[in-house]
Amino acid sequence: IGLMRSGRLLAEESPQVLLQTYGCQSLEEVFLKLSRKQGNDATANNVPEVNIANNISLATLQWGNKKDEPVYVTEESGVVGLMFHQSKEILIQDHSNGHYDPNGKSVMMIEQEDDNSSCGDCCPLTTKGKTKALLQKNFLRMWRNVGVMLFIFALPVMQVILFCLAIGRDPTGLHLAIVNQEMDWATKACPVLSNCSFTHLSCRYLNSLPNDTIIKDYYPDPESAINAVRVGDAWGALYFTDNFTDALVARMVLGRDADEETLDQSEIRVWLDMSNQQIGLMLNRDLQLSYRDFAQDLLSTCDQNPKIADIPIQFKEPIYGSNDPSFTDFVAPGVILTIVFFLAVALTSSALIIERMEGLLDRSWVAGVTPLEILFSHVITQFVVMCGQTALVLIFMIFVFGVECKGDLLLVIILTILQGLCGMCFGFVISAICELERNAIQLALGSFYPTLLLSGKYHIRPLFG
């Protein structure tokens, strides 16, 4: 710490050393001792006091023969405790209060020449020293704030990991309430035959359902199965009549001559819980694909063409993507751009506001820094941070979790960085509009969904497949 009184630095040391040196119990006692000593020294030296106006001009002082005698400015002058010593150089006063050296050049001209000679390697917009100081300030403020560093680098990694683990994968362990009146309810025996036998076809169909996705729960009647769906114990209910096999065989044999009762008895009645559209559509797909596999397997065992059981629509290889699309691959580009964009907004929207509130911005203005230099320093800082974020996000998304990328990886990196630059500019706009950090956070959060829905981030798919 430093102890000052009347514009003079009395002592500068650590608090413990000051307490031990002066034998005091508190810093107030140390300051009191130093103040008394300063007063005694001033009295002993008998320093002459000169009353000077608040705007002190060294050129108007009476130098004369008192070149080595200090000029003490009293409290009445407005500047307290300042000691002015005359320079050893010969100063000549002119009509403009400028000082000249013996060669006839003014001090201001010499300073301008020095400035021009020292800035030969600087660009006309900024100087190397200012840019370096601003960049050091920005990087040090981030580096010393552990929370900001975790927000910058740990948050995008966590978001990518959670997205890849939770979004786009097929759900497993879905309960289905099944009522099969062809099986023996007492023993729950449902024989599955693999030969060309047209008996217990309902059991054969249930055996073709995917076991990793669907868990089969058996109920005695349709009412109890539907009630299980209502209370949330199952995602759907299946009902097979007691003559399902006979009706299905008659339907295949009779064809267009089948009567209405045969068609009705040969149908599988399904009730689904469509409150979750994703799960409902997936169950609908699995039930239909399982019936196709069941029919094709039955025809193959009976030496029949399995294509008879397939629908008369043949899907060729898609132009883009695959026949088995992944929802994770579809959403991944939008998630990457969203993470980089809004992290840039969150970091830059409060940067200028915090500097303004802490007084750093005023100190920069006083030091001669221009707005362009401040903006340039923040852009460089955020660009370096954004490159690190982009590298982490793409590494975890593409190389760790295997999200498919069929295009040029360099184009993906360029698009991501450009999106981050857009977020950076938007953050600077918010920090320029808002005066308080609270208002900037509210505006950034309020603009999240409109920007997400209107910018088309979830339509950039060709590069990722």
From TrEMBL:
It comes from Diaphorina citri (Asian citrus psyllid). Residues 149-450 form the ABC-2 type transporter transmembrane domain. InterPro entries: ABC-2_transporter_component (IPR051449), ABC2_TM (IPR013525). It is found in: Cell membrane. The gene is LOC103519535. It is a multi-pass membrane protein. Its main location: membrane. The keyword Hydrolase does not apply. Keywords: Cell membrane, Membrane, Transmembrane, Transmembrane helix. This is ABC transporter G family member 20. One of its GO terms (cellular component) is plasma membrane. The lineage of its organism: Eukaryota, Metazoa, Ecdysozoa, Arthropoda, Hexapoda. The chain crosses the membrane at residues 146-168, 330-354, 375-403, 409-433. GO terms for molecular function: ABC-type transporter activity.
